[in-house]
Amino acid sequence: MKREAFQSFLVTAYHGPYSSGPLMERSASSYCSNVARIEAALSIDLDICDLTDAGVSALIRRLQAVRTQERLSDARVSDCVSALKAYASFVAPGRISEGEALSRRELSRGVGKAKAQNVASATRDVLDAKEVLATATRQMGLSLAELVARCSIWARPDVVEEIASVTPHATWFPAVRRMRVGERRRSVVDGIRLDDNTAANLAIKLAVFGRRGITGFHACHVWPATCYSPHYHTSIANIVRSCPTAWCSFGGVITALSGKAGLVSWP
After folding, report:
1. Residues 236/160, Cβ–Cβ less than 8 Å
2. Which of 3, 109, 180, 217 could form a disulfide with 241 if both were Cys (CB 3.0 to 4.6 A apart)?
3. Percent of the chain having pLDDT more than 90?
4. Which helix (H) or strand (E) holds 221?
């Protein structure tokens, strides 16, 4: 592999299906590493291999055949295939595109059938948007936690401290918690009003912006399961404004970001 030249190509001229322009340095390095992994797994030098459509398909079949022996996960094989196609584009620009759809010729071969089976399997199972987002950011060389942190909105520490001086735990709406399965929204249990996520959403809007009219963001709780406590469901230290919708289900990612908040120590 011509590593330096390939990496330069990736950051200056390559256009993959997940980006509107050349790759970032980190992602380009990941592609180079996966090309090196292919060469090691197959004991080949890609610079002397056939990297036409047919040649790339043959290499993919060989890679799939040794995946168990080389302990390659589905995600790793997918990353290697993307890197291989990118290298083919580097060697022969315009010959093959990473985002190219399955051709009839591929479908008549084993690789096309394998891809079709994977698509069919994914269709039979429930498509998990979290996995799609995690895979895409990994292939782009991005840190999902860092991406969420940069696009999310937190209350300032002084705002949290001011609210905490009035209500314990910096709770905006005392005596409100998230309803559990089987409970009804707006009902009252032992003096506690049950909510979906409306109160938490409104609390962080008012604390940060002082008004309701904020769109395109969703309220997420930082610490797991604390939404079921009236002390922490609307605690401003426990809520982050995050976008887009898909990120709201990344509880683990949001939790990992709790250290980035730097708002208050948690009991």
Report:
1. yes
2. 217
3. 18
4. strand 218-221
Domain parsing of the chain, residue ranges? 3-133, 148-261
Q: Which amino acid is it at 25?
A: E
Residue 151's identity, in one-letter code, is C
pLDDT tens profile 18-46: 555 677 888 888 899 989 988 888 888 88
**3-state SS class at 50:** coil
Tokens of 221: 């709780």
Q: What is the pTM of this model?
A: 0.45
pLDDT digits (tens, 9 = 90+) for 199-257: 998 998 898 888 876 777 778 888 878 999 999 999 999 888 765 555 555 544 555 45
Residue 149 CA to residue 168 CA, distance in Å, equals 26
Q: 159 or 130: whose pLDDT is higher?
A: 159
Query: Pairing mode, if any, of strands 218-221 and 239-242?
Result: antiparallel
Q: Between 143 and 227, whose confidence is greater? A: 227
Alpha helices in 218-262 (DSSP H): 251-256, 258-261
d(CA 208, CA 18): 33
**The pair of three-digit structure tokens given for residue 11, joined into one six-digit string:** 């950051």
The pair phi, psi for residue 219, each rounded to 5°, is -85, 125
Instruction: With CA atoms as reference, report the closest residue to 87 among 27, 26, 3.
Output: 3
